[in-house]
Write a structure and sequence with these properties.
- By secondary structure, the chain is of the alpha+beta class.
- The chain folds into three domains: about 40-50 and about 220-310, Efflux pump adaptor protein, beta barrel domain (Elongation Factor Tu (Ef-tu), domain 3, Beta Barrel); about 55-80 and about 190-215; about 85-190.
- It is about 40% helix and about 25% strand.
- The protein is built from three helices and 14 strands.
- The chain has helices at about 5-25, 85-135, 140-190, and strands spanning about 40-50, 55, 60-65, 75, 80-85, 190, 195-200, 210, 215-220, 225-230, 245-250, 255-265, 285-290, 305-310.
- The strands form three sheets. The protein has a six-stranded antiparallel barrel. The chain has a four-stranded antiparallel sheet with strand order 2-9-7-4, with no helix packed on it. Strands 6-5-3-8 form a four-stranded antiparallel sheet.
- The two termini are about 80 Å apart.
- One of its GO terms (cellular component) is efflux pump complex.
């Protein structure tokens, strides 16, 4: 039986109302405001404030003694390591032996010069006597000329003797310089602590051959520890000296120390302090240094998280 027109209108009106309700949008909720940034986190390296000191052998040879152990406290000037100085000692002995020989030669030459000086004086006297004799026709002119030639020869021998003596004395001076140089070389083969602090590491052992430029160890001078970190350029302008910071262990996530920002670079760098350890993005960073408070439970040269408090 076909629907009546009245029922048809009612059905269409109900359908339209249903569709309208389906398309009605829900009221929008209010957006949550962004929280203000109160801290900046960066990866930091723990270092002595005065830096890590690399120790170099300073001389060629084999390591004969190592006088201190790793982690041992050091005083400035303390002997740390010695290198074999037998070669230098042999050079000293050889140079001193040559000095003795040269001094003996000097004594002999001085005696020879004394003899030559007497010969010159005698030849001079002969010339003067022959001139007087020639004046009274007691000798011939040839005799006078022969005596003058003899005087000239004696004078030349005397001058040569003096030159030889001077040269021998110069050799002694050179040998003395060689002795002093060898003594300095032997002294330089003793490595001493440049500062008061702590020995961190030896990179050589007894018996190793080293040169003057060989790094043999590393030490930390006494003083405060710092955390060197970098802040991304987006937050770089918000870092200022005097801001407090917390140091967090990357292993446990716990706070292991605290400190204060004392340095913030005046420029941005392209390369990271840690570019050799982590992949880097092409961003610029600002170097920041934090002086740690006493009692921080940190290890030198370790990587930690540095939380800089902006308020």
């Amino acid at each position: 039986m076909p629907l009546q027109p009245t029922y048809t209108l009612i059905f269409l009106a109900a359908s339209t109302l249903f569709v309208a309700c389906q398309k009605e949008e829900k009221p929008q909720q209010n957006a949550t405001p962004a929280k203000p940034i109160t801290q900046v986190v960066g990866v930091a390296r723990v270092e002595p404030e005065r830096g890590l000191i690399n120790l170099y052998a300073g001389a060629d040879g084999r390591v004969t003694t190592i006088n201190v152990s790793e982690n041992q406290a050091l005083t400035s000037g303390q002997v740390l390591l010695t290198v074999d100085s037998q070669t230098d000692k042999a050079q000293v002995a050889q140079a001193r032996s040559k000095i003795g020989t040269q001094r003996a030669a000097i004594a002999a030459q001085e005696a020879t010069i004394s003899t030559l000086r007497l010969a010159v004086e005698q030849a001079q006297a002969d010339v003067e006597l022959n001139r007087k004799l020639l004046a009274v026709k007691g000798i011939t002119e040839q005799t006078l000329r022969d005596s003058e030639a003899t005087l000239a020869t004696r004078q030349q021998d005397y001058r040569k003797g003096q030159a030889d003596l001077q040269q021998t004395r110069a050799v002694v001076t050179e040998l003395n310089a060689d002795v002093n140089s060898a003594l300095v070389g032997a002294k330089d083969k003793t490595l001493r602590a440049p500062y008061t602090g702590k020995l961190l590491d030896w990179t050589v052992k007894i018996g190793d051959f080293v040169t003057g430029n060989t790094q043999v160890g590393q030490m930390a001078p006494n003083g405060s520890l710092i955390a060197r970190t970098e802040v991304d350029e987006l937050f770089a302008e918000r870092i200022k000296p005097g801001q407090r910071a917390n140091i967090r262990s990357q292993a446990t996530g716990k706070i292991i120390g605290s400190g204060t920002v004392y340095f913030a670079a005046d420029f941005l760098k392209k390369k990271s302090l840690f570019e050799d350890e982590t992949a880097q993005e092409d961003r610029r960073v600002r170097e920041v240094r934090i002086r740690l408070n006493p009692g921080a439970n940190v290890l030198i040269n370790s990587r930690v998280d540095c939380i800089i408090l902006l308020n």
